[in-house]
Amino acid sequence: MVRITKVYTKQGDKGETSLVGGVRVPKDHPRVQAYGTVDELNSLVGLVRSTLDQIPAEQERERVDQTLAAIQQWLFDLGSELATDPKTGREMKIGVKAEQVAWMESWMDTMNRDLEPLKSFTLPGGRLPLAFLHQCRTVCRRSEREIIALGRKEEIGSQVGPFINRLSDAFYVLGRWLAKVSGDDEILWKPGGGTPPEWK
């Protein structure tokens, strides 16, 4: 169990931080960039949860909240895995697993049964939780890009890539599904469309 007695340590004042295992690296190191974006994503998931009162279906709202709470725990596990130096921190056993990837695939399949096939891409917007889920999706994609860049230089766990890839898809499907259960129309992209009103 992690024990935090003091938030500030002054150890990072010169632009370096410690990975799990004790190795010091610059704060713009690809590994720090990767787990920092996972932390950003986790904060956005918290924003989604804080706005779920806008979803009228109480039973579904509670189930989504519990699911996102579990995903926040998984994201912290992922951050811990990414923050671990692969050479000196091997005793750290926390990380994402194949079972979580499989669960997300099953979750998306279940939600997709309630959804009509898409005829166009959806635009970000709608109720706050839906808009924040779009932001989760895009930050998750950025996290994936940073993880791929890290993986070209250093060792990462075998399930890190699949996990972050499925999660971005899951945020997209969840946004569609919440719009459906809320009775909202999806905002679809109309290629070449977009006519603004007259401003006089």
Automatic annotation (TrEMBL):
A Gene Ontology biological process term: cobalamin biosynthetic process
Catalytic activity: 2 cob(II)alamin + reduced [electron-transfer flavoprotein] + 2 ATP = 2 adenosylcob(III)alamin + 2 triphosphate + oxidized [electron-transfer flavoprotein] + 3 H(+); 2 cob(II)yrinate a,c diamide + reduced [electron-transfer flavoprotein] + 2 ATP = 2 adenosylcob(III)yrinate a,c-diamide + 2 triphosphate + oxidized [electron-transfer flavoprotein] + 3 H(+)
Occurrences of domain Cobalamin adenosyltransferase-like (ranges): 7-177
GO molecular-function terms, A-Z: ATP binding; corrinoid adenosyltransferase activity
Keywords carried by this UniProt record: ATP-binding, Cobalamin biosynthesis, Nucleotide-binding, Transferase
Associated pathway: Cofactor biosynthesis; adenosylcobalamin biosynthesis; adenosylcobalamin from cob(II)yrinate a,c-diamide: step 2/7
Keyword ATP-binding: yes
Entries under Gene3D superfamilies matching the protein: Cobalamin adenosyltransferase-like
Top-level EC class: transferase
EC number: 2.5.1.17
Presence of keyword tRNA processing: no
InterPro entries: CblAdoTrfase-like (IPR016030), CblAdoTrfase-like_sf (IPR036451), PduO-typ (IPR029499)
Residues spanning the signal sequence: none
PANTHER family in alphabetical order: CORRINOID ADENOSYLTRANSFERASE (PTHR12213), CORRINOID ADENOSYLTRANSFERASE MMAB (PTHR12213:SF0)
Record family assignment: Belongs to the Cob(I)alamin adenosyltransferase family.
Assembly information from the UniProt record: Homotrimer.
UniProt-recorded name of the protein: Corrinoid adenosyltransferase
